[in-house]
Amino acid sequence: MMTAGSNKHGTLATMTTASWMAVLMISLLQSHTGVHGWSVVSRGSTIICGRMSRRQGNHRPAFLEDAVPRRPTLSLSSSTSQGETETKDVVSEETKDVLAQQLLDRIAEVGQIGSVLPQETQEELKQLAAALEPYSDPSPARQQLRGVHHLLYSASPGGSSGALYKDKVVGKVTQTFCNETSFINGVQFLGSLLQIKLYAERNVLDDTRIRVTFLETGIELFGNELVRKPAKGQGVWNHLFYGRVETKTRGTILLRILETPSLFVIEQKIE
Q1: How many Å apart are CA 173 and CA 264, to the nearest integer?
Q2: 35, 51, 123, 142: which sits with the fewest CB atoms below 10 Å from its CB?
Q3: Comparing C-alpha atoms, which of 60, 47, 80 is closest to residue 181?
Q4: Could you tell me the pTM of the whole model?
């Protein structure tokens, strides 16, 4: 690790190591795309992501009560029905938060890379994720996404989980959304020293499914792009869950659960 007191030989050694890693990443990219089970396509478009807004725009603000006094209802059964509905909504929110916390706790125990876990553990995580599906916001595939989202768990055996070199090197995986269709899947190693970026676009198929097409792959070292080349890969992603949850361990987050068909669990912190 390079410290503030490193001499020029230490700096050179660090740069040499980083350069070697960059060459390794290029070699890995040439040998495979890191995308599991996708058909091959070729696209030449280029995505440039502008400055991201940190504000989460996916949740409607609570509407204020109408200032005009409402006429009292004369129907006792109607009033009772409304109270039951409100109670059910509260219970539903509480159940959603509990189920989400159970999933997050299990992920914290087993780690980010699902492909190295025993099959029974992977199945357990699938069941925990499926339990949240009835509590998803409506039309999860049509929700607008902004800013940076972080991968918590991936069952994919490919590089999209952040694992390289037979799972011995694990990077930090993010999704950065530029607009309604363009986003970047990024993997960071050694902090942000070395980054692999997969530029992609998404198109909504229906309320729960999107088609994702990868366009280009880039490698950055010390913040400078070394190479960018056309990418090959596309797939249909199914949304199991999309919604805001209150957690004990991670605060308030936007939680997304997808099948690509591998299970992915992704969060965005809500400030």
Answers
A1: 11
A2: 51
A3: 47
A4: 0.71
Give the number of residues written for the chain. 271
Contact 262, 256 (CB under 8 A): no
Which residue carries 């609570």 as its tokens?
Answer: 62
Could you read off the pLDDT of 98-157 as tens digits, one per residue? 999 999 999 999 999 999 999 999 999 999 999 999 999 999 999 999 999 999 999 998
C-alpha to C-alpha distance for 230 and 108, rounded to whole angstroms: 35
Query: Cα separations (Å) of 139 from 12, 33, 158, 198?
Result: 52, 30, 28, 26
Buried b (16+ CB within 10 A) or exposed e, 94-105: eebbebbbebbe
Which one-letter DSSP state was computed for residue 104?
A: H
CB 232 within 8 A of CB 39: no
